[in-house]
Structure formats: structure tokens, C-alpha cells
Amino acid sequence: MNTPFEFNDHPEPPRKPGLFARLRSSFLTGLVVIAPVGLTIWLIWSLIGWVDSFVLPFVPNAYQPDALLRALIGTENYNAWLGEDTQLHIRGVGVIIFLLFTILVGWLAKGFIGRSLIRWAEGLVDRMPIVRSVYNGVKQIAETVFAQSESSFEKACLIQYPRKGIWAIGFVSTTAKGEVAARAETAGALMSVFVPTTPNPTSGFLLFFPKEDVIELDMSVEDAAKLVISAGLVYPNPKDPTKPPRGKG
Q: For residues 33 and 28, what is the distance between their CA atoms, to the nearest angstrom?
């Protein structure tokens, strides 16, 4: 007679997953592999098409891809190969034109004449109330997004925030200077640390820590950002997070 307190010394082996469970697992694994690749290709393809549709209308008809191809191979050959009423669309031509135009504008803007024209145009915009607000906002966003590398974060770090004993990932921007460094009651240097939020690292808090309280990490800024965005699911060394990041050990 078995009592409720007796233990089974021979538990039944776990049942193997059925065919539907295995198919479901394989489908989800394939989806994890395919979705990022497919979405990336679709986004790039759509972005190229959007740039083409915006840029190509500004290109004279004589320099459109189909007109250039007609001039290169002859109208008769073009009609024989593609058809008389066919208009050739080569995706990416607008992107190339946009890149070349942007490089030209940047090169001109670095010169004396370009800087003078920009100052004159910005002075004109400053006299327009609504346009001034829109332009200054877009300019600030563009300067933040497309800034040169000298204004990027220096290192990823670990700090205790919002209290002792709780650790957070941060990004060291620079050593505090000016009035902030002069008025802070610290004996040593003061570090400017940006503490991002999860899963949106573009928002966060600017905090100033004594240098001795900032632990610099070996992981790159990009790997630390992935760790923040993924809410701790993606580590620099996913096979063994206790070891240094890949490529450093």
C-alpha cells in the first residue's frame, strides 16, 4: 500500500516532443534567422527607392538612366531589347546622385565662400519666426546624429545608480569642466556619464560621478548599447559572458 509520503524511485522518463512541437520549434528558429535579414533587406531596398523617387525628378530628362542608355547603345537597339514604350528604372541611381551632391555641398561648405553663404542664409532664416524654429530644430538633430567621432562617447562604464548597491551601464562622455567641476564638492576629477534608459538608449540621464566611482568596462560602446537595448539579453560574449568580449581575449 502506497502512502502519500512515499517517493517514486523510478520516475517516468520525460516524453519526447511530438511532431507538431518539433515543427513549431524549427519554424521559430528559422523565423529568428530570416526575420532580421529580410527586414534589413526590405528597409534598405525601400530607402533606396524613396531616395530615387525624391532625387530623380530633379535630374533633367537628358540625363535620366533610360535616356543615357539610349544614347549609349542607340535607340533602335534599346527598343529592340526593352521595347519602345519601356522606361528603364535602375534602383540606386538617385542614391549615387544624392551622395555625390552631398559630398560636393560639404566640400563647398568647408571653404570661405561656402561658410559665408551659410552665415548669410542662416541670418536670413533667423528673421523668419516659424521657419527659424523648424530650421534650428532640424539642424540640432542633424548635428547630433551626424556629428564627427570626436563628440562620441569615450568608454562604457559601470556605476552605482540610483543608489549604492544597484549597478547600471553608463557611457563616459568627458571629464567635467568649468563651473560644474569647480563647484562640485569632490576631491578628485569629476566624470560626465550618460545613463541610458531601456529599451530606448537615446533618452536617459546626465550624471556626474567622482572618477573613482566610475568603473570602465572592456566592452565597446556598441556592445554596451546592445546590452541596454536588449534589456540584458545580449552580452558581448554570448557563449561565456564571464570572459572578455570577443576579439579581446
A: 9
CA 223 to CA 8: how far, in whole Å? Answer: 48
Question: How much is the pLDDT for 108?
Answer: 86
More confident residue, 171 or 245: 171
The answer to whether 237 and 244 have CB atoms below 8 angstroms apart is yes
- 224 with 194: CB under 8 angstroms? no
Cα distance between residue 70 and residue 76, in whole Å: 8
Which tens digit of pLDDT belongs to each residue from 102-141? 898 888 888 888 888 888 888 888 888 888 888 888 887 7
Q: What pTM was computed for the model? A: 0.52
**Residue 27: alpha-carbon gap to chain centroid:** 28
In degrees and rounded to multiples of 5, residue 62 shows phi and psi of: -70, -20
DSSP for residue 132: H
User: In angstroms, how far is CA 129 from the centroid of its own chain?
Assistant: 33
Ordered strands of the 204-210 beta sheet = 204-210, 190-196, 167-175, 155-160, 215-216
List the helix and strand counts (H, then E) for the chain. 8, 5
21: cell is 512541437
Tell me the C-alpha distance between 175 and 209, whole Å: 10
